Amino acid sequence: MPAGTDKRLLWLGVAIAVALAAGVLGFASRADAYVYWANDFGDSIGRANLDGSGADQGFIDAATRPRGVAVDGAHIYWGNYSVTGGSIGRADLDGTHADPTFITHTTDPCGVAVDGRHIYWTNASADPPTIGRANLDGTKVRQGFLTGVGSPCGLAVDDAHIYWTDTGANGIGRAELNGTQVQGSFVSTAGSPCEVAVDNAHLYWDNELVPGATGTTIGRANLDGTGADQSFITGANRACGVAVDGERIYWGNINSGVPGEGTIGRANLDGSGVEQSFIAGASRPVGVAVDGGSPATSIFGLGKVIKHRRRGTATLVARVPQNGRLKLAGRGVRRAGRRVIGPAKRKLLVRARCRARRQLRRDGRARVRARIVYKASGGEREVRTKSLTLVKRS
User: Fold this and answer.
1) For 48-104, what is each residue's pLDDT tens digit?
2) What is the value of pTM for the model shown?
């Protein structure tokens, strides 16, 4: 591919490698993205740039013993602990308009998660413990959305399932997004897991309390629960809080528990490049989240088309507001699809098939109509179409 084409494939000046030959969907810019954490002993939500700079331990100071934090394309959410109950707080992404009682009558909300339609939280001290759910605007609150969940703390959600840590049974639970098919011991863990995270391929969790161990570990397993590696990342110190994006995994190290002595750790998705003190100065960080950066948008749509004339293909840019699934099909277009992490921009490689492919080889041009289907986690399907001419030059 000519150097000029490579430059055009850079989105906002930053690119993640795109496997064009394999026809997969790539990741877009991570500029202006942030990592967040809950300072349990600081009554605040902290934030820093993804490179660790600009750390602000009091980014949101309207929290009360926060435990668990989540972020979507518009808001930050966290759980407030109280001996008399608890609540779910919410603020805008810039930290303004903080509402510490956005959802009330929770019971020790240790974990918080969010998808394209709902916010979820654990009622860890309820009798019996439950997982709650509400619409993103705070309506239709169901404190007992999921029951039979053991001793839940951390939460994660993708386009198919809800996952939670069971601190009493040393395991990860799972259920369908509609609350059915509850599996209390989907994955066994080495110790008492505090939080859980999920991406397109794996589950991650922190083994906060491992019997006989001097430190703690970050575990990982395939999405179907197989291939569990309890020591995927070692050297953590009382880890509680884990998050993942398209490039790295992040976790909170409580360490001594003394305010200001906690850290945020970081590693590459393959477990390499471990930095246990990537960000210092946290106060018992119980909950970590990471967002999608500047490409964030609340609307699904299509952007520019980039044609690759030497290959006879084209790249479509799709704006994805939330985690979900993208599928590419259409007249004369080879099918492709995968789970995606949002909010962000994602690239789809358009390749000709059948009659269009033969025409492209014969005439050097072929008209196709791409059909892109996006389904947010727990949301409705949205469809966009795009007619374009593929050009192949020798």
Assistant:
1) 999 999 999 999 999 999 999 999 888 999 999 988 889 999 999 999 999 999 999
2) 0.71
Superfamily of domain covering 3-28+295-391: Immunoglobulins (2.60.40.10)
Q: CB under 8 Å, gap of 24 or more: what pairs does 14-20 form?
A: 16/246, 16/247, 18/315, 18/347, 18/349, 20/308, 20/311, 20/313, 20/315, 20/349
Query: Is residue 383 classed exposed, middle or buried when 0-12, 13-18 and 19+ CB atoms within 10 A define those classes?
Result: exposed
Token pair 């395939």 is found at 222
What are the start and end residues of each CATH 2.60.40.10 domain in the chain? 3-28+295-391
pLDDT digits (tens, 9 = 90+) for 261-317: 999 999 999 999 999 999 999 999 999 999 854 333 456 888 778 899 999 999 988
Residue 89 C-alpha from the chain's centroid: 19
Q: What percent of the chain has pLDDT over 90?
A: 68
Q: CATH 2.120.10.30 region(s) of the chain?
A: 34-290
Q: Is the peptide bond before 128 cis (omega within 30 degrees of 0)?
A: yes
- Which single residue is written with the structure tokens 């995968």? 338
Cα 70 to Cα 185: distance, rounded to the nearest angstrom: 24
**Domain at 34-290: CATH code:** 2.120.10.30
**Can you tell me the distance from the alpha carbon of 70 to that of 155, in angstroms, rounded to the nearest whole number?**
9
